[in-house]
Amino acid sequence: MKKNLSLFLGLLCVLVAGAQPDRWQQKVKYTMNIDMDVQTNKYKGTQKLEYWNNSPDTLDRVFFHLYWNAFQPGSMMDARSLRQGSVVMRQDRNGNDIGDWDARVRDRISNLKPDEIGYENVTSIKMDGRAQKTKLHETILEVQLDKPIAPKSKAVFDMTWDAQVPLQVRRSGRDNPQTGVRYTMTQWYPKLVEYDYNGWHPNPYIAREFYGVWGDYDVTINIEKSYILGGTGYLQNPNSIGYGYEAKGAKVTRPAGAKLSWRFVAPNVHDFAWAADPQFKHISRDIANGPTIHVLYKNESNDARQEAAWKEIADAAVAVYPFIRTNFGAYPWQQYSFIHGGDGGMEYPMSTMLSGPSLGTAFHEWMHTWYQGLMGTDEAQYAWMDEGFTEYATNLVEEFYRKEVLQKRLAGNPAEQRKSDSLVAAALPLYHAPNYNSYFGLVKSGREEPLTTHADHFNTNFAYSIASYSKGNVFLEQLGYIVGAPVRDRILLEYYKQWRFKHPNVHDFVRLSEKVSSMELDWYQEYFVASTKTIDYGIDSLWEAGGATQIRLRRIGQMPMPMDVKVTFKDGTSEWHYVPMYLQFGEKPAEKGQEGRKVYESWKWTHPTYNINTAKRLTDIVSVEIDPSQRMADVERRNNKLELKW
User: Fold this and answer.
1) d(CA 160, CA 146)
2) d(C-alpha 470, C-alpha 539), whole Å
3) Fewer Cβ neighbours under 10 Å: the N or C end of the chain?
């Protein structure tokens, strides 16, 4: 195993170094040892943190996240949740007000008792052997350095801390009544805040997203012997642990004592998460030319449907990985774990927490690997580049699974498979349409805010969720409308090749898209990301002149776009007309089915109307339609198609 791991690390370094933009990155190496007391739900930890300041800046202080301090009455997370609950969104059938709650949090933090709260208490911290002064800002610990860290130099921090695992409220915690899982250990240790080209990012834990420093983790967890663990990293002592991790045919020899020491190593990740329960079941699958898939779940009642659903996740991961690799790039680590825990679905490097065996959620969380685990974009600033891109990729994976697995399975033996497959299929939405509809609903609500809004500062949870997930999804699908779907697909693969492990931002993605498409796209970022201006085009009028037909298009909304227009005739034939938008300074290649299209001069965004024409007579036309693919996020589609009934 050590030989394989060394080879993997070498290949990973080559992948990271090759064909990528030159942007400096800070680097960390965590060596942690924790001792868990499952009776008191507390643990003590030690941490050695090696920190490479690869920036051109001198650092006179550093910051650490202490996420669990949010789970205390009166915390910022508590106050924010209570405030959102007072924002009335609508009324239920009985006329009761429905607030903008995150249903998982509500007022639960306010009601936590002393033995139910969470905390992380740093008892000592040294830099290069010298004690340092600290200042606590609730979920952020500021360390005021006695000696600055110079550019291109390294510092070593030694820390001790103790912590209490909070009752499950949000993402992490213990004794979740929904899952029955004892411990979901996420955001669980003092984690160094990221410092990048924009400086420090000491975001307090309010409820939203995360940002972390790339590095290596060596984590030893001492816990009562009956507990089974899953999480980030490679287990280094599988034959003295067992529980399904041991090598095939190996004899498991556990050391004496009441506890086991689980040692995990994780290379080049920006976080480390784990979960533990005495009743976890552990299954695994090996993917050819891919990772080993681990699934750890709890099924106390031995429900056959639950058992089948968890196994479906393991088998589905094997089935969809070749599609993922081809379309989004290879998974660069050797393992991935789907773990029962948390309060829905939440992604972490090399693992995810799932509150239940939802296949759609499992796909979504795994696809976060490509847009959170590999890109490591600052999610607080660009949540939509993580959630939205992930949602887009998930839709494609779901569609592949539906067609290539479920439909074929049903066709092969429908009598036996229909009932179980209907449960799986029900969890998979129909491609991108639900995200478009959610975005349209947000626009009509009047609560939309620009995608540039910091994740913690959206006025409503409602606006944040739809913006980051649905509008982010629409951004990519609509990009395919602008540059052509095959070009958009090349952009995503090039994004993977050039920007993994680099913390890209929206400017990086748009600039890469410009290079691949040979178009100018800053206008797309300006309108669709930085504003809430909307798209609305309509067919204004048709008339005949000199035996040919003129068609006038009108821009009603404030956001300009290129136009695909299809004209269909009585004889069943059709014509495609393409009008580039002035600011893009280019045109997309004809897509499948649009061969022979007529291309026009670009439509200047200052002009509200534009005329196209066909040599056919007006009475030959049966319909004119703007964007039959409906990839353009036109907020009023009723005026996009005109049907002529002669």
Assistant:
1) 19
2) 27
3) C
pLDDT band at 476 (very low <50, low <70, confident <90, very high): very high
Q: How far apart are CA 223 and CA 216, in angstroms?
A: 22
Distance CA 154, CA 50 (A): 7
119-127 and 153-164: which strand pairing?
antiparallel
At 522, give phi and psi (nearest 5°): -65, -30
Please tell me the predicted confidence (pLDDT) of residue 40. Answer: 98
Using the predicted structure, report yes or no on whether residue 251 has a pLDDT greater than 90: yes
Distance CA 386, CA 383 (A): 5
Residue 284 in contact with residue 296, Cβ under 8 Å?
A: no
Report CA-CA distances (Å) from 20 to 10, 52, 215, 382, 396: 17, 20, 18, 21, 26
Domains of the chain, first to last:
404-529 (no CATH), 537-643 (2.60.40)
Count of other CB atoms within 10 angstroms of residue 87 = 16
pLDDT digit string, tens, across residues 410-426: 886 766 555 545 544 54
pLDDT-derived band at 207 (thresholds 50, 70, 90) equals confident
For residue 446, CA distances in Å to 365, 525, 546 come to 30, 21, 46
Question: Rounded distance, CA 52 to CA 153, Å?
Answer: 6
Sequence letter at residue 242? G
Length of the chain: 646
Q: Torsions phi, psi of 528, nearest 5?
A: -90, -25
- Other CB atoms within 10 A of residue 187 CB: 23
Handedness of CA 520, 452, 503, 127 (dihedral sign): positive
The C-alpha atoms of residue 85 and residue 462 are separated, in whole angstroms, by 12
- Integer CA distances (angstroms), 19 to 16, 447, 450, in order: 8, 41, 32
- CA-to-CA distance for 233 and 242, rounded, in angstroms? 16
Place of tokens 């067919």: 539
Q: Is 422 exposed, middle or buried (0-12, 13-18, 19+ CB in 10 A)?
A: exposed
CA distance 27 to 192: 10
Residue closest to 171 by CA, chosen among 142, 204, 145, 209: 209
Which H or E run includes 27?
A: strand 27-37
The answer to whether the beta carbons of residues 56 and 160 sit under 8 Å apart is no
Helices and strands of the chain, counted as H and E runs: 13, 33
The answer to whether 470 and 438 are in contact (CB under 8 A) is yes
Q: CA dist 577 to 219, 546, 583, 639, Å? A: 60, 20, 19, 17
Give how far the C-alpha of residue 199 lies from the chain's centroid of Cα atoms, to the nearest Å. 23
